[in-house]
């Protein structure tokens, strides 16, 4: 059994302003994703100004979507009691599925503004997303939140506020699975040309599968508990991702690839 390392959620203070590890994790995620995107921006034919727009839109989508998703899916009762909680992002409380919807909307706006295909933009962005997921889970660990279920494994950890029983450090499981492992899979898959939509589909399928698996070690929200089928809210929200991701991969390889080849042949004949 291990003891939680008693991490102070506040990294440092600047006068009356307290800077939290959770907030720093998001800043680091955006900075690292931006740097990686810069190395690959030529693949989508983006200028540096366009890439800056894409990062800005994505950041707004993540924060607004993640916060609203957390309120809608997990903490509606808390919002009703304290509406200002929505503004205190540094306290934690971001829902990935809400953030995903926010990013999809942001990418749609960006793609229309710059006359790009939405799925092509999605394929460009998808490999960078696990970086944010990984650092976000480290932020959860630093906050001592979203701990796992009670366990007897040797690495079980006693979290403050979670009782005396050791629990799975599920934040670290999710860091490893949804963050590191998913990043490696997507990064290497996207190194070679793929049918439009297949990278986005793999991200949805991969995240949905890994999140569904990790939820078996994560403690369900106390006010929600396990839902129908003895599944958590996170698992139910991940199921549509499995369906959409798998369907998108099939569509990409059957129809998107065929359509792109037909377009190339048509252009070749005209030449």
TrEMBL record:
Cellular localization per UniProt: Cell membrane
Primary location group: membrane
Membrane disposition: Multi-pass membrane protein
Keywords on record: Cell membrane, Membrane, Transferase, Transmembrane, Transmembrane helix
Pathway info: Protein modification; lipoprotein biosynthesis (diacylglyceryl transfer)
Thylakoid as UniProt keyword: no
Official protein name in the record: Phosphatidylglycerol--prolipoprotein diacylglyceryl transferase
Name of the encoding gene: lgt
């Amino acid at each position: 059994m291990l003891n939680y390392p008693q991490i102070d959620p506040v990294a440092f203070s600047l006068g009356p302003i307290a800077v939290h590890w959770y907030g720093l994790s998001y800043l680091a995620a955006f900075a690292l994703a931006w740097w990686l995107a810069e190395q690959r921006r030529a693949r989508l034919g983006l200028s540096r100004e366009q890439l800056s727009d894409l990062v800005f839109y994505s950041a707004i989508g993540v924060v607004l979507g993640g916060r609203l998703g957390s309120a809608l899916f997990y903490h509606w009762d808390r919002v009703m009691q304290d509406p200002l909680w929505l503004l205190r992002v540094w306290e934690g409380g971001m829902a990935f599925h809400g953030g995903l919807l926010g990013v999809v909307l942001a990418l749609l706006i960006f793609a229309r503004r710059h006359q790009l295909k939405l799925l092509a933009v999605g394929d460009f962005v998808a490999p960078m997303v696990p970086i944010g997921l990984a650092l976000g889970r480290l932020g959860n660990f630093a906050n001592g939140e979203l701990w796992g279920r009670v366990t007897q494994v040797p690495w079980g950890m006693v979290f403050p506020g979670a009782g005396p029983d050791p629990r799975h450090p599920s934040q670290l499981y999710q860091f490893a699975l949804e963050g590191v492992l998913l990043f490696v899979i997507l990064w290497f898959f996207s190194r070679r040309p793929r049918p439009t939509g297949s990278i986005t589909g793999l991200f949805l399928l991969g995240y949905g599968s890994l999140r569904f698996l990790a939820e078996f070690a994560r403690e369900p929200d106390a006010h929600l508990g396990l839902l129908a089928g003895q599944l958590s809210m996170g698992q139910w929200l991940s199921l549509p991702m499995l369906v959409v991701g798998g369907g998108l991969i099939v569509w990409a390889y059957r129809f998107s690839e065929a359509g792109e080849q037909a377009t190339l042949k048509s252009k070749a004949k005209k030449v």
